[in-house]
Amino acid sequence: MEWKIDDSRPIWPQIKEQLMRDIVAGKYPMGSPFPTVRDLAEDAKVNRNTMQRALSELENEGLVITNRTSGRTVTMDENLIKLTRGKIAKEKIVSFRQEMEDMGFTMEEIISLMRGSDSDVEKGE
Amino acid sequence: MEWKIDDSRPIWPQIKEQLMRDIVAGKYPMGSPFPTVRDLAEDAKVNRNTMQRALSELENEGLVITNRTSGRTVTMDENLIKLTRGKIAKEKIVSFRQEMEDMGFTMEEIISLMRGSDSDVEKGE
DNA sequence: ATTATTGTCCTAAGCACTTAGGACAATAAT
DNA sequence: ATTATTGTCCTAAGTGCTTAGGACAATAAT
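ok -> structure tokens follow
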């Protein structure tokens, strides 16, 4: 898979959030096996420990279940997944909207710009 | 002023971006004097060096002009400000939209959720 | 002329993140 | 029974961020 990691933030939260999005999007179905730490680390080209840091966070949130030696699986808790999806979305929406309005964009301007994400934004004001 | 700084990222980029949003929003008008490094640092409760790091970045982008001993002023380049405003907005829109769609939200769902940022998002799916 | 202000540079220390690699217990595979 | 796999823990080193505070040149203020 394709990993989007930049150096603007620590790596492990970026991985954690990316995996969370993949899980709530159903890319890793409920109850299905999760790749091993070593495989994921190799794929993302990061250290074992870095990936484990991200995975242990996912476990703390209850999104993945760890079985000591048989690997990990995605949670079967459908409600948790839906709640998590909604929570992430809400947080993103609030901060996005806040920052856009801080720059002086109105709600309708934001929506208009989002609909045509290719048109020139710089004519604003 | 109110500073929104969290520990998810280094402090200086957060300050830089916040000041950029304030400038392009006209909160610091074109040509007007900019607070001193020490004052800004005290206000944001960060170290001098941290604030200077942010300000030197703003200068690299041309948004503020530094006059060795008489302080700084906001640029008079109206075009630069408009271009910067558009650039920031576009980047935010693209990444926001990308991450929301990664989670399985459609364009219309996103807009609907944004319009009523208080309603429950968790009923989605 | 003297003093204060401003931006800037500097060292030093503490801290979190990242990488590299070694090691171990518990289980799966053979 | 033996071997491989898996999650996990550990040390060690390097790097960047942050803070603290000292110092200096150029200019403004008096």
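The mean pLDDT of chain A is 93.
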